[in-house]
Write a structure and sequence with these properties.
By secondary structure, the protein is of the alpha/beta class. The protein has three domains: 268 residues, Alpha-Beta Complex (inorganic pyrophosphatase (n-terminal core)), CATH 3.90.1640.30; 113 residues, Diaminopimelate Epimerase, Chain A, domain 1 (Roll), CATH 3.10.310; 110 residues, OB fold (Dihydrolipoamide Acetyltransferase, E2P), CATH 2.40.50. A five-stranded parallel β-sheet has the order 2-1-3-4-5, with helices on both faces. A five-stranded mixed β-sheet has the order 6-7-8-10-9. The chain has a five-stranded mixed barrel with strand order 12-13-14-16-15.
């Protein structure tokens, strides 16, 4: 299918989906289904871009040290790898650093810059990726030792402005990208785009054009944007779709090795692949305290080294899963369902692995439908008892706003509406917990979370699982905030086989009758429903299509949400 598609041949359910999402008329439908890179907004409309590009060009021209400092999550590591690879394409190797999550924590660390073996000369350029916006004190110290600073970030702005540095952050109200919700890697990509435009202009005048194909770098943008669960704005939709295509034929051996390790070398990559396979795999390194492995993988030019590094990530992810299962159970043992329902919030602390707290919080949000913040214990530099937490939220409840209101109890905090982090002294936990819960309770009472029935669409499994319908379903990608995963209902489904699966038999594997073949599916957390399904196989099925990858083979199945 292409942009010359006959709109009248698009299935009615797809047209209805687009209509409910505000996409009507041939031009809008075609632009949504077939986004084009040429429609991306220009880098020049990003506040601070001109100054940032001039600063980078100056350091490139004079051969001075450039350091890229990224966050340890998928967004930060992919953005760091993007810039390292981009500068290499320009013929320049730059230094990079990712802090250890468990030992150094989030953001800039002045101790690293005070180590003379890291800084070659007093005159250097620091470019942050997905961090830095809350590091005003450290930035002042870096400037005092001779560093110029460009902060590329997308997190909420601090109340106090940063001193004397260039800021690229769509959160700035005067930024031309203010409503585009770029991920950190998206901001890094636009910096690269801005630099490339200026470098080409300069070199063209000298008769030496620098040809850098930016599309190949969109593989990193897709990984970071989807994994960081940012809103799929007009711009992000184009970037991610372009990234899906770039990943399928990647110029980077690390990206290819990553896909191969997840048996994804063949077939199209989608948002679910990143959200459930690639993203957790990359994040595992940072959570266990080894995020440098990710950047090494994504920047290596050796296929054999890439294979070894991808295997290492796979092993780290297995370890991450084991820790997560244990820590999740620890927190569950502290909670009662009635307590959660009454308080409309979960705040818990204990012997929790710092790198896993965010996953535990996310699972609790999925289970109970309320915001959650989970703290692990850590010793401070002076021996004080600290609690370091990760929070996850629900639509309509901003974590950053909530943390602002309890900031008197916090040593530091940051993030965005749906995900945030915070650090406090253990002695302040009880007071913090009470106040934070009251803030969230008030917000949840104002904005009760309900299922958006307008986003559930009637369509039989038989129709939707046809080649024609699935082709259009893929064109609706990427899915995420702003373009949520589609849920369908089949009121005449018949389940012809079912069995409980999983370590605790908590999931339900089933087969739905089709005209020519049965359709396989799985319902996560629905294992206890097997008996009623056997007693009454005629069901109203609530489901979404999903890809099953097994030993390099791809097949479509359904993920059952309710029966």
């Amino acid at each position: 299918m292409d942009r010359n598609i006959d709109i009248n041949k698009i299935p009615e359910v797809i047209i209805e989906i687009l209509k409910r999402r505000g996409v009507e008329g041939r031009d809008d439908i075609v632009n949504f289904l077939f986004p084009q890179l040429k429609d991306l907004p220009a880098p020049s409309i990003m506040q601070g871009m001109g100054e940032a590009v001039d600063l980078v060009i100056g350091f490139l021209t004079e051969g001075k040290q450039i350091i890229v400092w990224g966050d340890y999550d998928v967004d930060g590591t992919t953005g760091t790898a993007l810039l390292v690879n981009f500068f290499r394409k320009l013929g320049r190797e730059v230094d990079w650093y990712i802090p250890n999550r468990l030992e150094e924590g989030y953001g800039l660390n002045i101790a690293w810059f005070n180590d003379k073996k890291n800084i070659k000369n007093r005159d250097f350029l620091l470019i942050t990726v997905d961090c830095g916006i809350s590091d005003g004190v450290v930035i002042e110290q870096i400037q005092q030792i001779g560093g110029a600073v460009i902060v590329t970030d997308h997190h909420s702005l601090p109340e106090k402005s940063l001193p004397g540095c260039v800021i690229l952050n769509p959160s700035q109200v005067d930024c031309g990208f203010h409503h585009e919700y770029l991920a950190g890697v998206g901001v890094a990509f636009y910096l690269a785009a801005g630099i490339r435009g200026k470098v080409e202009m300069v070199q063209n005048k000298e008769g030496e054009a620098a040809k850098v194909n930016l599309k190949q770098f969109l593989a990193f943008v897709a990984l970071g944007t989807v994994a960081d669960v940012v809103r799929l704005s007009f711009t992000n939709r184009i970037l991610v779709r372009g990234g899906f295509e770039a990943m399928e034929n990647s110029h980077f051996v690390g990206v290819s090795a990553l896909l191969s390790s997840c048996e994804m070398k063949n077939g199209k990559v989608g948002s679910e692949d990143i959200g459930f396979l690639l993203g957790p795999l990359i994040n595992a390194a940072g959570r266990i305290g080894d995020s440098k492995t990710v950047v090494k993988l994504l920047t290596t030019e050796s296929a054999s080294e890439a294979t070894l590094l991808a295997k290492k990530l796979f092993g780290l992810n297995i370890r991450r899963k084991e820790i997560c299962t244990n820590d999740f159970q620890k927190i569950l043992n502290k909670l009662t369902k009635n307590q959660v329902i009454e308080e409309k919030c979960i705040v818990a602390a204990g012997e929790i692995h710092q790198g896993i707290a965010g996953i535990v919080a996310s699972r609790l949000v999925d289970m109970f439908g309320v915001p959650a913040i989970i703290f692990g214990k850590r010793k401070g530099v002076e021996g004080e008892n600290l609690l370091v937490g990760s929070a996850r939220s629900v639509e309509g409840v901003s974590l950053v706003e909530a943390l602002h209101k309890v900031s008197q109890f916090l040593l530091k905090y940051g993030g965005h509406d749906m995900a945030a982090g915070a650090t406090l002294l253990e002695e302040n936990f009880i007071e913090f917990s009470a106040k934070f819960k009251s803030v969230i309770y008030e917000k949840m009472s104002e904005n009760p979370v309900t299922i958006d029935r307008k986003m559930i669409f009637p369509c039989s499994v038989e129709d939707l699982m046809s080649e024609e319908y699935l082709g259009f379903f893929e064109l609706l990608e990427p899915f995420g905030p702003g373009n949520e995963v589609l849920v369908f209902t089949d009121k005449t489904a018949r389940i012809v086989d079912s069995k409980r699966v999983g370590r605790g038999l908590e999931h339900l594997q089933l087969a739905v009758r089709g005209k020519y073949a049965n359709y396989t599916g799985v319902g996560f957390g629905l294992g206890e429903r097997r008996r009623e399904v056997q007693q009454n196989p005629e069901r109203i099925l609530c489901y979404t299509p999903t890809k099953n990858r097994f030993r390099g083979r791809i097949s479509w199945q359904i993920r059952v949400i309710d029966i």
